[in-house]
Amino acid sequence: MFEGIKAGWRLAKSVRSIVAGNRSLLLYPFVSALLGILLFAVTLVGVFFIPLNVGAQWKEIAAFVGAYLLTAFVSTYFLVAMLIDFRSTSSGNPVGMGKALGLTRQYASKIFLWAIFYTIIVMIIRMLESRTRGLASLVIGIAGSIGITVATFFAVPAILEKKAGPIQAVRESVSTITRTMGPAFGGVAYIDLYTLLFVFAGMGLIIVSLLLPFLGIFFIALLIAGLVLIVFGMVQNYTFFNILKLVIYDYYNGVPLPQGISESMLSSAIKTRRAIRR
């Protein structure tokens, strides 16, 4: 287990180095977040202007479900495109963001089904939370969050690699995470610690800017710098985290590691699926 955690830690460092050589990968989560926020807001407000003969409560529910579904679809679509871009760059045939988004169209139906499935699961958990109070609500929320995380950890790589539907993607995810727990945990720990440095630094600058007397441009500069560091830390976390999952999933399924990542760091911690089948 500890050997696996160490392997995941080293793997995450290698992933960070690879992304540093292709900073354009950081654009995907940034653009996806902006587009997702815009679509969420437009859908949330727009539903109330649709001439439906239903009560305001049902319109509110429809607005949240529609907004969540659109956001899930857009975020997953951009994520698949980012992984396609990463794979193409790693293989020495970079495609760029525009082409990667175009290549993702072939997965659009699977991504949409996944967005529907994910939205339904989240809504069921939220409904159960809202119907309980106190400790029971907290337990349902925590258990639901952990369950979703485990069940969907490798779902997007499965959609990319096998064009898997929602149920198959969940099966692939559970199968993979149970055999790669050490490296996955070690990699996530490294990524979280590394990116939290940027987030905490940004929060520190914002706190300093609020505590100091108003100093005009200097105050604004500190505030903006703090926000930029927080956003940069979150974008890096999302990018590193999802590329790490793809690399682990690919290796487990017998796919060669990308250039810049040594096989020796994972070979002792993960038995590939190809080896298991023998």
Task: Give a short synopsis of this structure.
This protein is an all-alpha fold and 278 residues long. The chain contains twelve helices and no strands.
Which structural traits does this protein have?
globular; mainly alpha
Give the overall silhouette: globular
> Largest beta sheet, briefly?
none
Q: What integer value in Å does the Rg equal?
A: 21 Å
Number of alpha- plus pi-helical segments: 12
The CA-CA distance between the termini, in Å, is: 23 Å
The H/E string reads HHHHHHHHHHHH
Q: Which regions are unreliable across 5 or more consecutive residues at pLDDT < 50?
A: none
Written overview of the protein:
This protein is mainly α. The protein has one domain. The protein starts with a helix and ends with a helix. The model has no long low-confidence stretch (mean pLDDT 83).
Spell out the blueprint of helices and strands:
Layout: H1 2-20, H2 27-46, H3 56-90, H4 96-103, H5 108-130, H6 134-152, H7 155-162, H8 166-179, H9 181-211, H10 217-252, H11 264-267, H12 273-277
